[in-house]
Specification:
8 helices; 212 residues; 5 strands; Rossmann fold; alpha/beta
């Protein structure tokens, strides 16, 4: 089965981002669901973690890389409104601290508040100002929709990306989920075929022994 690191546009994007780690990039990956954006973000985070202490993830500082989805962040902020969790400033600082931040599901939502958008813009600006902290934003919106005034990603965030990271448009990519499922089915079918062939061989051997 192909792996993310060797598979077509996914591997190419992962390698390009890996080469730029430490530059302080702000990059936006956009496109329909299922195109492998989250897989790229997760793989990049693992590479950052392993670069701290190779092959010993149990010794890695949690500040090296952080993955967070917007729905998760929204729940944290709602708790802060009710004084039930961390303050909004603490939440923001935890997003600013890591060497790599992967922010997923950043597409437009009808229930997103101006406060959320402003907080994200603040986080990206603060990470940009640090010069060496990389930010990868993942959204299911199209590259055209990103430039709409009502886009899920704040215009200032997109501006930072265009300045120092760029936009990875995954729209034309094959469906990563479907491709992976097909490969997994092929692997399982191959294993079943091999098992049947072994069973047939054993049965044939037993039959020959019985006749002998």
């Amino acid at each position: 089965m192909r792996t993310l690191a060797t598979a077509g546009p996914w591997g190419e994007a992962l390698e390009r981002l890996t080469e730029r780690l430490g530059e302080g990039f702000v990059c936006v990956a956009c496109g329909p669901r299922g195109r492998g954006k989250t897989q790229i973000g997760a793989a990049l985070a693992v590479r950052v973690l392993r670069s701290h202490v190779p092959d010993r993830l149990d010794y890695i500082t949690p500040s090296a890389a952080k993955y967070v989805s917007m729905p998760e962040l929204r729940l944290q902020l709602q708790s802060s409104y009710n004084n039930e969790g961390q303050s909004a400033m603490t939440i923001a600082n935890e997003l600013i601290r890591p060497r790599l931040l992967v922010l997923d599901e950043a597409q437009r939502r009808s229930d997103r508040s101006a406060f959320e958008s402003n907080l994200l813009a603040h986080v990206v600006d603060a990470r940009y100002a640090s010069a060496k902290k990389d930010t990868l934003v993942l959204t299911n919106e199209t590259s055209t929709a990103l430039r709409d005034k009502d886009a899920g990603i704040d215009a200032s965030v997109l501006s930072r990306a265009l300045e120092c990271g760029g936009v990875i448009d995954c729209t034309g990519w094959p469906n990563w989920r479907a491709d992976r499922r097909q490969a997994e089915r092929g692997t399982r079918n191959g294993a079943l075929t091999a098992a049947r062939q072994r069973a047939q061989t054993l049965d044939a051997g037993a039959e020959t022994t019985t006749k002998g």
